[in-house]
Design goal:
alpha/beta; iron-sulfur; iron; EC 1.2.7.4; about 625 residues; binds FE(4)-NI(1)-S(4) cluster; CO_DH_a-bundle; CODH; binds iron/sulfur cluster; globular; Rossmann fold
Length: about 625
Amino acid sequence: MSHEVLGFDVTADALLEKAKRDGAETMWDRKAAMKASCGFGEKGICCKNCSMGPCRISPVEGKGAQKGICGATADTIVARNFARTVAAGVSSHSDHARDIIHVLHMASEDGNYKVKNPEKLMKLAKEWEVDTEGKEIYQIAHEVAEVALMEFGKPFGTQRFIKRAPEPRQKIWKDLNIEPRAIDREVATILHSTHIGCTSEVDSLMDMSMRTSLSNGWGGSMMGTEFTDIVFGTPTARSTEANLGVIEENMVNILLHGHDPSFSEMVVLAAEDPELMKLAKDNGAEGINLVGMCCTGNEVTMRHGVKIAGNFYQQEMAIVTGAMEAVLVDVQCIYPALPKLAECYHTKFIATSPKAKMEGATYIEFNEEHALDITKKIVREAILNYKNRDRTKVMIPQQKSKAMLGYSVETIIDHLDKVVNSQTDVFETVKPLSDVIWAGVIRGAAGIVGCNNPKVQHDNSHITIMKELIKNDIIVVTTGCAAQAAAKAGLLTMEAKELAGRGLREVCERVGIPPILHMGSCVDISRILDLVSRVSKERGLDNSNLPVVGVAPEWMSEKAVGIGTYVVSSGIDTFLGITPQVTGSARFVDILTNQLEDKVGAKFFFEEDPTVCAQKIMERIEEKRDRLGI
Ligand code: XCC
Ligand code: SF4
């Protein structure tokens, strides 16, 4: 067992020992059984796009097979594989968004789903020129939703939200012909183009990857955030707690794991039902304890303060505590191993989405029409399972940290308004933020996002980079499992300002924020794009001019590749702590880490050592400041 990899995670060792005692298999057993990962796959030089193959290119130049049977070179194969990874990532995020938009489309005054944020809806209707005159709010909601749904498949035109980008950025996209069109079209086109005998030209594959990724960044993902806010409310600052210690000894524990708030929000509602609360008490529990994991955890903690049990890598550990009555999942990032693991305990593993039926799971299909009835039924199952808990098998770690979160762009601006000089300044803008960056009080900003990956110590890269950056007056915004790492490490507290440099500390004190701002789920990276673009526009600049970076220290998913690509295509340098599967093509690596800068003003950096990565980020930020002459 790779214990050296776990040293950083204080809850892991004891739970892994326990798993062994309980005869429960974990990812570490499977990782050990895997031995080394496939060298060809690692470099991205295995192609199975047709059944003349699979073809694999020799990693040694000039020795062994240098081309696939069709003649595809390593460059083409790597670029094609990368493009398909982007397409899968874009599909996942955007298809999630599509579901949320359907939810708004069915929202009604007396239904399960309502319009919680009518102001945001009206703003969007105006932005999209949907006529609102004399219409009641639900009619507007349905019309706006319909317009949004067309963004997925409209035959003509480009994504509506690209107009939100700074003008110089829009021009770059136009000139390169990478303005994203309908989302489904971009995905279908890139799958077509990577079919055997289509695109072999590497730059073209890169351009298509960028365009496809942008259809998510400035399309699917951004709509996901906007529509989630409209239906469930825009997040506001609130406090919670994070880490496995939030699991309660004497309560019915229910883990929400996955991504889609149209399900998890309804579970939150169901768990507040007085009858179910009484049922929990009648069954000997003190109450119902909902805890979240991965991005659905982020969604419900941002809007309700639901406690965070942990991030991606802890999904097995939450079950190994032996105190989890039910694990409720919808889509994405859920280990197929969980149903089997749950069998080692009394835990009920309930899959709910037809998009993610899971082998060995209890399947209770969620559908939006009967949302609350179904989630009540599911919560009831969990409650009734409480009596089956084997107390001798329970071990809940004590560790948990307090955290402040809920920093949507709107909430950040609200906070900034507090420090605006009412005589001389304008409200409701990001000007105070851009002013402190220009003054050098804050040197720049970093968006630290993404998953966990057993190739590196759990959470260590996230936390090392975060601490290093805030110490050097770089403000951090964060989403996804990185944000949950920060929460567990106590970095999302007001007290964490003590770890910040003098400038950032002062800003935290004056504005009343932590030095690291939790901005939501991975779909909410669109909030970061929005924030950065507002600063650019405020200064009349492009994103690529600003001293800001994106960082994915421990990423693992296809979604992350899609995100990284749209972040770079949006003009923001992106640092990857895990090297993507592209190193089999020196040319493609050069495109990602060098040539892209000439094209879109930003590029990728690969750096696996978190301390060195932080150093490189700071150098890049100072370089950008120098170029601006600030
Ligand atoms: Fe998944 Fe979104 Fe990654 Fe976490 S950060 S492991 S993608 S849950 Ni999105
Ligand atoms: Fe081999 Fe070409 Fe087929 Fe890929 S597309 S499997 S490289 S023959």
